[in-house]
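Running co-folding for nicotinamide-adenine-dinucleotide.
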Amino acid sequence: MSTEPSFGACGKCAPDEISHVWERVNVPIEDKSYDILIGPGILSELGNMLDQFMPGKNFIMVTDSTVEDYLGVDLMNILEAAGIKVSMISFPAGEESKRMDVVVDLARKMVKLGADRSTVILALGGGVTGDMAGFLASIYMRGIPFIQIPTTLLAQVDSSVGGKTGVDLPEGKNLLGTFAQPLRVFADIGVLCTLPASELRNGLAEVIKYGMIWSSELFDMLEAKWWDVVNLEPHVTADIVKQSCEIKAHVVAEDEREGGLRRILNFGHTIGHAVEASSDYRIPHGEAVAMGMMAVARISEARDMISSEDVERLAALLDRFSLPRIIPEYIDDDSIINLIQHDKKVRDGRVHFVLCRGMGHTEIVDDVNSEEIIRAVTACRE
Ligand SMILES: NC(=O)c1ccc[n+]([C@@H]2O[C@H](COP(=O)([O-])OP(=O)(O)OC[C@H]3O[C@@H](n4cnc5c(N)ncnc54)[C@H](O)[C@@H]3O)[C@@H](O)[C@H]2O)c1
């Protein structure tokens, strides 16, 4: 058990420096506005913060089996030491658990623990935990509040913000779900130190995406500080999580339910999902998104919407972060085209593509034809 302030702080920050690195981002969704707190060492202070934020409440921490071992048990001790009433329930780690029957199982455990409408769920884990625990909160007794405590980079920069929750069906990912905003997000960057490199890359692909679609300054910073980024230097990590959350907060506040602006967050994902599915999910999500970003950048380049120099900058940054940009030969063109046409985001039979319009800007078009896609994919084969 550890109740030292360095818990979740990676040991890279001097103790007196820790809270000075904390950042706050507001998600200004009407009636449901909430804050994201970002920095190292937040979890060691969580007991006091929950006590002030929601005094006297009963909490149930939902986590996966891996995060339970890495963080859950220590965090329970910290919260209990601060006088917080909390229980923990968990499920086996991994996307395979993101199913309705696992949610029902968790709900039954909550009933057994006496959870009622005043109970608050703490979702401690990556995107799978956040999506499932958020979904559970949104349907348990017709809806109870929840707090996100994201522990992967992907969850800190993306999935914990914006209120999309859900589970998978055998027919496809995220087919059952709700929009439900958390009360608050606590993103302790110190916990990222135990993250496997492949999981770190999944998050970095999304951070690069934000640079491409919204902020050339963020992209410049990733290029200039790439070494600090991959080594999780605390100030730089806090900064990229903050900038990413600011962008996502802005986008989802303008378009909570993906009718318009939110679609730009799919940059690189349409071709990326097709590559991921064609590989039978052997290619991890972040790597597939990296290939997808490269392919749409090539389509944009062919349409003179972005310079060749900027496309090469994207390629070089993906290399820096060990994100692959070459689409393997075994993923054939027909399978990519076929999957794109059956993407669940296709509207009225037209595939919407988010293209680059210079660095940090996008344009959504619905007239990209199969030949253009194949030409771009071919350019990404070497
Ligand atoms: N709701 C949204 O807006 C949104 C956006 C993007 C992705 N998603 C969803 O997010 C999910 C992917 O999230 P993910 O990549 O975080 O996967 P994940 O939750 O499965 O986490 C990846 C792995 O890392 C482990 N892990 C988590 N934190 C750790 C830590 N600090 N140290 C060591 N290991 C740790 C987990 O146990 C798991 O094995 C997908 O289901 C996807 O659909 C949702």
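Result summary
DSSP finds 14 helices and eleven strands in the chain.
The first helix runs from residue 46 to 53.
Job closed.
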